[in-house]
Write a structure and sequence with these properties.
Layout: H1 2-6, E1 11-17, H2 19-35, E2 51-57, E3 74-84, E4 89-96, H3 100-113, E5 130-138, H4 142-146, E6 153-164, E7 169-175
Antiparallel strand pairs: 1-2, 1-6, 3-4, 3-6, 4-5, 6-7
Length: 177
C-alpha cells in the first residue's frame, strides 16, 4: 500500500497511431505552436506521442500482454475537435470514432486492469476516445486554433503501450503483427 501512496500521477494504457497518422497529428501540434498558442509540440519528452488512452489511473499496474495477443492493427478515424474542462483554459483534442475493434480492445483492457479510480473521461461509462492536441489552451485562442485542424484523419492503430507517469517511461505491450 505504501508504494501506491507515493504515486501521484495517473499511469495509462495507450494505443499508438501508425507513422503517417502520427505525423499528421504532429503537424497539427506544430501549426498550433506556430500560432503561439498552447500545443503538445512544446512537450519535448520522448514519451510524448499522439495516442488514444484506453485507461488511466493512479497506481495502474501493467496489464498482462496476453490481453493483446490477438490484437491486429485496425482502422481508426480522428474526427471533429473536442474540448474538455471548464474555465479560461481547456484541453483541445480530436475525437476518435469508436469502432467495434476499438471498443472490444478497450473492454478487454478494462477487464484485465480490474476496478480502480479512473481519470476523467477514461472510466467505464465515461470514456471519450480522443487524441490530445493542446492542454491549457485559452478559450480566446480557440477560433484561431480550430483553423489548424484539418479534415478527418484515417489511419491505423496497432501498438499498445503502458505509460508509467511517475517513472516517466513507457513499455510496449503489443505490436501489430
Amino acid at each position: 500500500m505504501r508504494d501506491l501512496e507515493l504515486r501521484h500521477s495517473p499511469s495509462a494504457i495507450e494505443l499508438l497511431l501508425d507513422p503517417e497518422t502520427e505525423s499528421a497529428v504532429r503537424a497539427e501540434w506544430e501549426a498550433l505552436a506556430a500560432l503561439g498558442v498552447s500545443s503538445l509540440a512544446a512537450h519535448l519528452s520522448p514519451t510524448n506521442r499522439p495516442h488514444i488512452t484506453l485507461v488511466a489511473r493512479v497506481g495502474l499496474a501493467t496489464v498482462d500482454p496476453e490481453v493483446f495477443a490477438a490484437m491486429t492493427g485496425f482502422p481508426i478515424t480522428l474526427g471533429a475537435p473536442l474540448l474538455f474542462g471548464s474555465g479560461e483554459r481547456r484541453v483541445l483534442a480530436r475525437s476518435v470514432v469508436p469502432t467495434a475493434e476499438l471498443l472490444a480492445l478497450r473492454d478487454a483492457v478494462l477487464s484485465a486492469a480490474g476496478p480502480g479510480d479512473d481519470a476523467p473521461h477514461t472510466g467505464p461509462g465515461e470514456w471519450m476516445p480522443h487524441v490530445a492536441l493542446a492542454r491549457r489552451i485559452r478559450v480566446a485562442d480557440l477560433p484561431a486554433a480550430l483553423g489548424c485542424i484539418g479534415a478527418d484523419l484515417h489511419g491505423r492503430a496497432g501498438v499498445a503501450r503502458h505509460w508509467d507517469a511517475d517513472a516517466g517511461v513507457t513499455s510496449v505491450l503489443a505490436v501489430d503483427r
